[in-house]
Write a structure and sequence with these properties.
Elements: H1 3-26, E1 30-35, E2 42-47, E3 53-58, E4 68-73, E5 79-83, E6 88-92, E7 99-104, E8 111-117, E9 120-125, E10 131-136, E11 142-147, E12 160-162, E13 168-172, E14 175-179, E15 186-191, E16 201-206, E17 212-216, E18 224-227, E19 234-239, E20 249-254, E21 260-264, E22 269-273, E23 280-285, E24 295-301, H2 314-337
Antiparallel strand pairs: 1-2, 1-24, 2-3, 4-5, 5-6, 6-7, 8-9, 9-10, 10-11, 12-13, 13-14, 14-15, 16-17, 17-18, 18-19, 20-21, 21-22, 22-23
């Protein structure tokens, strides 16, 4: 075997190993769910494939946690949770759930949704008037208001998302407001008040088709409404009220399987729907599983294996072993050819 062929084969195996590692590290292994009910303000953990309960990731009251309204995985791989009652953002170890610190000890008025973007942490302040604050994503140092209090008539924003156009979309009671994604300046009321029957906005996310999905939180029967991603015009009920038992939808997230996961605050469950059609698939987390009562946020976490809060390294070592074995084989072939 020529040295050239050996070198080519070696490079191929190295590329295979790197690609495999990237795929392994990218998959989510746990679904983390914020839970709010008197006496159990925690973050629950569920297997990201089966939905089986794996216990509490962040125990009740850890680090002073009260009313965990928003959650996000930071650039450091740790979990950040907004504590609306104490107006701060708490940081927890992304692998174990252990409390680290109050990343933002104060200044996050009625903290709700969290977004990490371009070196900043954006925090929706669900107060009246409402606003969006911005903090350094590494240090937590305040960077001022991104959306100033009451801009565009903002009140009680709990959900927000950056759209395909780079602008920020924020829930506002029975409407959705749009802000410049660079300056935070008010642009317009993207979804008009009560459009399509919208009464109480919570979770918000852009779908695979580029249109906007909004959770209509209503104990009398809420659903997921869809709006044109360019004009904001009402299209339809992507998930109808009552579909799969849906009662009061709050957080929304697309999973690693590209399906839509909805936290049902009315039933204490997480429901799964086809990410393209909105058709009901299953109760991914059945009502009350793991003592879930009031889901407030959903986060797919790639850091934990959903069992003991440790990195999932089994596949990593398998791929490394295969790659090393392949390299050893080609080394033997080269020696035999010499």
């Amino acid at each position: 075997m020529s040295f050239y062929r050996f070198k080519t084969a070696s490079i191929a195996f190295i590329i295979l190993a790197i690609t495999a590692l990237a795929l392994v590290s990218a998959h989510a292994t746990a679904l983390l769910v914020g839970n709010f009910v008197s006496g159990d303000e925690s973050v629950k953990r569920y297997n990201a494939t089966t939905g089986a309960s794996e216990g509490d990731f962040v125990p009740n009251g850890s680090g002073g946690l009260s009313f965990p309204l928003g959650g996000a995985i930071g650039p450091d791989g740790n979990l950040y949770v907004s504590d609306s009652d104490h107006e701060d953002v708490l940081r927890y170890n992304g692998m174990t759930g252990a409390f680290i610190d109050a990343f933002i000890p104060s200044g996050a008025d009625d903290a709700a949704a969290l977004i990490f973007r371009n070196g900043f942490l954006y925090v929706a302040n669900s107060s009246d008037p409402g606003s969006v604050s911005r903090f350094n994503a590494t240090t937590g140092a305040p960077a001022g208001f991104f959306v100033t209090p009451g801009s565009g008539g903002l009140v009680d924003p709990e959900g927000m998302v950056f759209g395909p156009d780079g602008n920020l979309y924020v829930t506002n009671g029975s409407s959705v407001l749009r802000y410049n994604g660079t300056t935070g300046a008010f642009i317009d009321t993207f979804v008009a008040a009560n459009s399509g029957g919208l009464t109480n906005t919570r979770g918000i996310i852009f779908g695979h088709d580029g249109n906007l999905l909004v959770a209509n939180f209503n104990f009398a029967g809420g659903g997921i409404l869809r709006y044109n991603g360019t004009t904001g015009a009402f299209i339809d009920s992507f998930v109808a009220s009552g579909s799969g038992g849906l009662s009061s939808p709050r957080p929304l997230i697309f999973g690693p399987d590209s399906n839509l996961y909805v936290g049902d605050y009315g039933n204490g469950s997480v429901l799964r729907y086809n990410g393209t059609t909105g058709a009901f698939i299953d109760q991914f987390v059945p009502p009350g599983s793991g003592n879930l009562v009031g889901p407030t946020f959903l986060v797919f976490d790639p850091n934990t294996d959903g069992v003991a809060g440790v990195p999932d390294t089994s596949s990593t070592f398998t791929f490394l072993g295969m790659s090393l074995a392949g390299l050893a084989y080609f080394a033997r072939m080269r020696r035999a050819a010499i």
